[in-house]
């Protein structure tokens, strides 16, 4: 350990994650103690303040320990031999060995004004971590924090989430970790109560972090909005959308293949998106109407146009019966006022279910149509490239927790 920095490096987590966490906590603890003695502040601090600060640090160290020793970390050391993803290019004989550096400036700790400052030091740590992992990974890391006493303290968990990106998935409170996280792909939805909705930034429309309408809980992996030009200089934000995915289905189909590919590579990996579309992964688009005056028939025609072109690309030999069936579900004159919610759900066995305003409109059994539909959001020419990128990052984070 250097003098002016607390510097923790974890070059290979194989079998050492627990030691790392314990080491982290003991380093923080002894450093804080030394700093306080050296700076003479120890005696002027009330014992309850010290206790609070240490407790905050303890929680944070615990969070890190848990993060490194479970979800994310469990996949950090997957061997490249298991990785047959085409976008992955392991270097030399080390494959993807993740290097983690967490640095905490000594003066941050030495000047701790306990109570307030403990959480700002923790925030500093979060920021440092944020330099090597995306905020989305952090949100998932927050999701995997163990139920240490008072871990609900938003002071610690909420700040980095809110200060980074409002669209990220909200922090999760894990209520029980004893009953087999492994059994539910690391991200065990039944164990969690999700605390926050996500807000699509352009429309301000809220999206719940979890959808559990079909009996298969799906998590929100990205939001976006669709603008359409109606006259030359006027464009309308027609709808906002959120894409949800069933983590178990994702892990089952793609967990092994992409576990060791770094997330920033995944986002630029065409094969990854193709696999997401090709594999029968249970997913849903939740679409919320954002302007008045939309007619179901207008929406139907716009979807049909887009889907026809995409179907042709997905399977040039496809028959278009699936499209006629899909179209037929939009014939009724249903009003679509602002706020109307439309779900398009793809099941793992290739059904596309359409539900408008709480009413199931119909089901089409066609894998081609399912692929063409989700191609609108994660395909080569997406409705929102930014949302597609966000989706890939969050899907990548889930895969790391498989
Ligand atoms: C003002 C025109 C409104 C048209 C609304 C159409 C909404 C569905 C669009 C089809 C899918 C898409 O390309 O986003």
Automatic annotation (TrEMBL):
Gene Ontology CC entries for this record: chloroplast stroma
GO molecular function, one term: fatty acid binding
InterPro entries to which the protein is assigned, alphabetical: Chalcone_isomerase, Chalcone_isomerase_3-sand, Chalcone_isomerase_bundle_sf, Chalcone_isomerase_sf
Organism: Acorus calamus (Sweet flag)
Name of the protein described by the UniProt record: Chalcone--flavanone isomerase
Annotated Chalcone isomerase domain residues: 219-392
Homology family: Belongs to the chalcone isomerase family.
